[in-house]
Amino acid sequence: MAFPASSSATALVLLLSQFLLLLPSATAGVICEDLPQDLCAFAVSSASKRCLLENTQLGGGRTDYQCRTSEAVAEGISDWIETDECVRACGVARGNVGISSDSLLEPDFVQKICSAECYSNCPNIVDLYFNLASGEGVFLPDLCEAQRGDPRRAMAEFLSSGAAPGPGAPPPVST
């Protein structure tokens, strides 16, 4: 049985309109604000913006955590939710609010971020800390190389670059 042209055209228009209504949700990719708290940190949106866990103080001493889109761009990375393996290998924590270069002052952290398991397999986390180190005037590959040879010297060089130690950071080591 053949359908009149107008019926076929109407059916086609309805089918296309349903497809177009579904298209934005199907192609949206990672939207930071839609991510649960336990996947937010170290995720990258479909627009290559890094996701950031933020906290808001509520009444009664309660804290609310929300995933937000930051202005930081992850070059060449988009639609990325970091794997648990990389989180463990690199020594980072998803529950941290914000990210700072202070962790680069901790020898144990530098050892993990510079480990082959992290540095060779987790480009998103390495890129993030590469940029944080650069902001402190430090080239992460040089810090990793120095850390492999003499971790105490690596910390001294990092501190001498002008990086300010965070609270509880070890004092600089003279060499």
UniProtKB/TrEMBL annotation:
Q: Which InterPro entries match?
A: PAR1
What is the protein name for this chain? Answer: (wild Malaysian banana) hypothetical protein
| Keyword Signal assigned | yes
At the top level of its lineage, which domain of life is listed? Eukaryota
Kindly give the Pfam families that the UniProt entry links to this protein. Answer: PAR1 (PF06521)
Q: Indicate whether Signal appears among the record's keywords.
A: yes
State the UniProt keywords alphabetically: Signal
Q: Where is the signal peptide?
A: 1-28
